[in-house]
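Forum: Protein Structure Q&A
Topic: Joint prediction for protein chains with partners

I've read a bunch of threads here and the consensus seems to be that you should model interacting components together rather than docking separate models afterwards. I'd like to see that in practice. Below is the full input, 482 residues plus whatever partners are listed. Could one of the regulars post the assembled result?
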Amino acid sequence: MTESPERPSAADRRSNPPGANEVGDAEASASTGGTTAAEGGAGERDVAPTDADGSTEVASVAADEGGGGEDDLEALREQVEETYDFESFGPADMADMSLEEWEAAFDPETWIVGEELLDRVEQELEARVAIREIFAIVERVSDGEDRVIAYSDEGYAVIYADGSIEGEGTVLRDVKPTVALCSMDSYELMDQPAERSLPEPREVVEGSGEFGNLMLQIVAGAQVVVGIGLAVAWLALPSLSTVVAPIASIGFLAIGFFLFLVVANARLSDRFRVEEFRNRLRALENAGEEWGDVLPEEARGAIDAGSGSDDSDGEFARDDGTDATTAETGSIADGPDSDNANHGGDPERRSDTD
Amino acid sequence: MSSSGSTYGDIHRYEPARESTAAAIAIVLLTIIEVLFVFLFTYGLVSGWGLTETGNMYLGSVLAVIFIDLAFILAMYRKEFLPDVVIVKKRRRKWEDLYIREDDVDGTPFADGAWDHVKRAIYPYYKR
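Posted by a regular:
Agreed with the consensus. Here's the joint model:
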């Protein structure tokens, strides 16, 4: 149900005639982007929240423009409450529901939006970055329109006050459930973290302490010495005729060898991982320069250019991790994605979003 | 399915080891015990303690102490002396990923009938 909080926004701000929406997401976005570009880029946002189901807005618009249809809505809502058992509501019920019924049952008042939502999202995202559940830089941008942006080398996400999200890549994927949670009244935010951002590349020190390695090496050394000693004793002393001594010797040697291997592996992997992490943080800085200011324009460009849906998975693959390509690579948001097409929301990462 | 965008191998967190003082003292003590007992065991084995009944039991206990002590050393080392690293790995398919809809909960049958199952288990390429 991660999509739910975005729906009221779509319903509220959509002012185009319903016919325009039925053309499809891509063309609708192109037309709105063209007509409303002067309004501070309000047009581009409409695409993201609606995701695959462009037709949802049609229903909502119809509901809004009904004017005197308040009573009808109430009646429909009651009818929906009767028809469906929301205590045990499954995908099958979801599939049965018509769009009008869904819109009627959905109450926009239940979600937190606006300034408060952004505050909550900002705090929550910072907390999640602090525990590294999300890897991104989080910023609050207030010029023009209030919004929270999160970006990394792997993508970006922009969260607007009405709860709509746009972006691409893994950041968008990770941020989405957070926004959904924050818009719920019952969700308690995580505590404000002490460290508000990711570390500086230079501050990252190589991790494993040499002290622990030294201790392990002493143990390994003792094992190896004893193993060799036992083997020599078995060969030299006639009193050690049983098979026990060589077996113990082999055992000790094996343990010693294993421990040395552990230490070597720790040192080696440390060196590589530290470098890798520094590179990633550097890439993040570059991503910031590239995306930090130009984000809205960039996003608009992506809307205009990338009208098609793109389901390929390797889209954002950047092996070197150093070069953050622009947002124009793909369709905005995640397009008509299979995840959102089925009404069960995305079953991917966190079950607590349901 | 869920992870679009290849981020495999990305490092999300890299924090240096804690290396608290208590852990340092503990691992030093454990190391000393380990080394002592390893040499004690070897000495006992070479001097033939194992030939008497109690001596044999004693040697066995010493060996047990060696291994248990080693286990604690490794646990301590892993917990306190290695960095805290979180790496993106490929998410394997889980059961719940396979069947999105309730109707599909049993999936597509692999074969029809028990005998067919047996045949396919023995020869996987049987009438694909």
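Residues 115-203+290-353 of chain A form one domain.
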